[in-house]
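Can you give me the bound-state structure? Components:
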Amino acid sequence: MSKPYRPLLFCALLLAAIPAAAQDTAAFQRCLGGLEADAEQHGVSAAAYQRYTAGLVPDMSVIDALNHQPEFSTPVWDYLSGLVDQERVDDGKAMLGQWSDVLAHVQQRYGVDPATVTAVWGVESNYGRQFGKRPLVPSLATLSCIGRRQAYFRGEFYAALRILQSGDIRPEQFNGSWAGAFGHTQFMPSIFEKMAVDFDGDGRRDLIGSVPDALASTAHYLQLSHWQSGQPWGYEVKLPEHFDSKISGREAKKSLAYWREHGVRRIDGSALADSDTPAGLLLPAGANGPAFLVFRNFDAIYAYNASISYSLAVALLSDRLRGQAGLVARWPTDDPGTSRAERRELQRLLIARGHDIGEPDGMIGDKTREAIVQEDQRAGLPTDGRAGQRILAALRAGSHGGGAGP
Ligand code: CA
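Here's the bound-state model for the whole set.
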């Protein structure tokens, strides 16, 4: 190598010697400086910006979460069997009793019934038991400066700072999911600003510390999403044989009279009303699984979280909280889903076989799924890593001889 290049080589070596983390931190601090310069135009005072961002360092684990592509897809019946299980029905009924006065007032003010509001609460945060534990400001600052959705997260970052500045939420309580959803109802900061209400009258809109504020904010959200008071979300239906299921989907609404003409009946066999009420035919697992007709109120739930599986979980849980029975039709699978109690049992059986999957918390993460794949192989089952009834039964049977306790 000729002499003139040496200083360049030296610089390159020097740069390479600076740990990547330090380079990240320097870039992060530059980015925070840019965000600070724009803070006032986003309604955050200089003093508030400095108070709530002092000493911030990037939290790269939220970028890992942002980039995480689940290795295993979740069939709708697995999703629903964990979210609409007996435990959540029992807990929800207890909450309906405990908060009956508040829920009655919420219904008076916003027109949304107690079972629906409570079902959203149960699916969003397990009735306030699962808020997420990550401090919101560091998460949103990191997502604002690193990764692939910075523009979106900057809006949420400034919204989070405005919420702190307003005094609605106390800084030490401002924790949530990696993406910034927080409180009983898991609102994002920008949604909080539009939808949250102070229902207990203490002057603060507090979705973390106040159940009345959270329940009323949920109802307010549904009301603004055009909830129709006193109307059902939909119901399970029975299709005629050889039904042409080309017209289906939440948005492809036809009149009840149309579906009636085409042989669709209520699940108990009774006839649909001969009315012009628009209804969409939902076939979440295809024409051989459960079928539903859904009305405008299903769309309101969908507005809360744009996922058919999510909306069905809330809808079906609300029915169970009203004392109705669960689904009649079976999902098209030979390996039905498990409740959270069964998932905890499955995890205890995996731990007893030496799998290092952490605490048996009923949450099926990648570690649990990888352990299930190994046990699938051992048992000669399809290696899909599903926490279903099939592997649970196999492990239960194996544990009798193996001495694995609960
Ligand atoms: Ca309040």
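A couple of observations. The longest helix spans residues 20-37. The pocket of calcium ion is lined by residues 198, 200, 202, 204-206, 210, 213 (CB under 6 Å).
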